[in-house]
Design brief:
It is built from four helices and 15 strands. The chain is mainly β. The protein has two domains: 3-164, Galactose-binding domain-like (Jelly Rolls, Sandwich), CATH 2.60.120; 176-219, no CATH class. Helix 3 runs antiparallel to helix 4. The N and C termini lie far apart (65 Å).
Length: 222
């Protein structure tokens, strides 16, 4: 294959996110009011001149992100040099890369299976369960100098430490439980949002959640 053909293949491969959106399982553990939410990436085979895909983390708790990290595992194939791997992770709503890394940056070199732990504070701040700032990522993977790409990512995760909201009934983060929170609850009536306004975590927004919101009406406790 000529270099110009390789560039066309790369342009085609990276023209946009993959059509299939990968919805991933989220596991959360709590330590006090701090929860670690883990999104598991699927095993991703790499081929041709680049791959780009979108994945979405669902079921995130409302709260404040204090740390985001990725655990990456990559296995080379057919003699690729892991140092040449290029990884770009973007949060589309923010418009900037969260991570822009090469295998060389991670200390990877040669052939084999390589792992790395990377952290960022670019996503720190308040999030809500339907806020895309953390829930959606676009990942681009390619090799330096437009080399053919092989190998596989596997057992990789993106994790966030999230400080839970002290006032879960305040759905709009205005430090008060009021009419807008009531309307938000009504808009999600009968659904399973994976968090507030399903305050009792029974899998549906219903009368018990409505009563709990009314019982906590007014300013949030300081």
């Amino acid at each position: 294959m000529t270099e110009s053909e390789g560039r066309r293949d790369l342009k085609s491969a990276l023209a946009g996110p993959a059509a299939a959106v990968l919805v991933l399982v989220v596991a959360a553990t709590a330590a006090g009011n701090l929860q670690t939410t883990q999104c598991l990436l699927p095993s991703i085979p790499l081929e041709n001149f680049g791959v780009q895909f979108t994945f979405i983390c669902q079921g995130l708790p409302d709260g404040e992100i204090v740390t985001t990290r990725a655990v990456l595992e990559y296995t080379t194939q057919r003699g690729d040099d892991a140092a040449d791997l290029m990884i770009r992770v973007e949060a589309p709503s923010q418009g900037n890369p969260v991570w822009l890394l090469s295998g060389n940056d991670l200390g990877w070199s040669g052939v084999g299976t390589f792992t790395a732990l990377v952290e960022t504070d670019l996503l720190n701040g308040i999030i809500e369960s339907d806020n895309p700032d953390f829930s959606e990522f676009v990942i681009t993977i390619e090799m330096a100098d437009r080399q053919p790409l092989t190998g596989r990512f596997q057992h990789s995760t993106i994790e966030a430490d999230i400080l839970g909201k002290p006032c879960p009934w305040d759905l709009d983060f205005d430090d008060e439980v009021g009419i807008t929170d009531f309307l938000s609850l009504l808009a999600q009536w009968g659904t399973d949002p994976g968090g507030p306004p399903d305050f009792n975590s029974n899998g549906t927004v219903d009368l018990s959640d409505y009563v709990e919101l009314l019982e906590n009406w007014g300013p949030c406790p300081s």
